[in-house]
Amino acid sequence: MAHSPLPASGPEGPLRATPPGRGPAPVRAVLFDFGGTLFQMGTYADRIRSALGRRVGDPEMDRILDGLETGLTDPGVIEAQRGRDVSSQAHRHAFTTWYASVPALAPYADVLYEQLRAPEHWVPYADTGATLARLAGAGIALGVVSDVGWDLRATFAHHGLDRHFGAWVHSYAHATEKPDPALFEHACRELGVAPAETLMVGDHPAKDGGAAGAGLRAYVLPAGAALGSHRGLDVVVRLAGVDADGSGGGDTC
After folding, report:
1. Domain that holds residue 130
2. One GO MF term, please (predicted)?
């Protein structure tokens, strides 16, 4: 049987009592998801107008966006999403298949995909930079763990944020996807920290929250943040035990 980093538990809780005075280890590292957590893509309407290179009125745009929504239920599109993030090829195929499910976008599917990879099309949330600076300034090691089909370092560098990170774990480079424990464990090794000392932050309950199965703590952000708005990342600073003056804290979450 594979070893688990978590204590053995029955239906009611851990089988063995926690020794007195032994609480959670201080957080020494924070891992972040990318899209929907630190960055958000520009609006589909803006991207489509840019790709088509012409004026697209609201009625036509509504039809195109309705087509993309319908495409999400298309059997061929659904099938293309399986294993989407395990390789660069699979990632491109998944997205271009979806774009091409709308006849008006089919000739521009590759253009839309290249937008997805372009650093300038991604927008950091309003509190991303300050949050990363506070964590790094307090000596918290930072890493990125993302289900993605390309290297994200150029996007972070474009926005002057790459300097904060000591580990970059891209799913396509490991031929697997979150919540595979291997991705979280690899990031912890890169940062030289134990899973129990690490917090994973993302926006997907099953994928990012799955870090708990690898022995990490996990915080899942709520959905629905507007483009360029505050993401609520100040909570992460508190969970990492960073004090108001920027110094590190003690026991957390």
Report:
1. 24-39+121-239
2. hydrolase activity
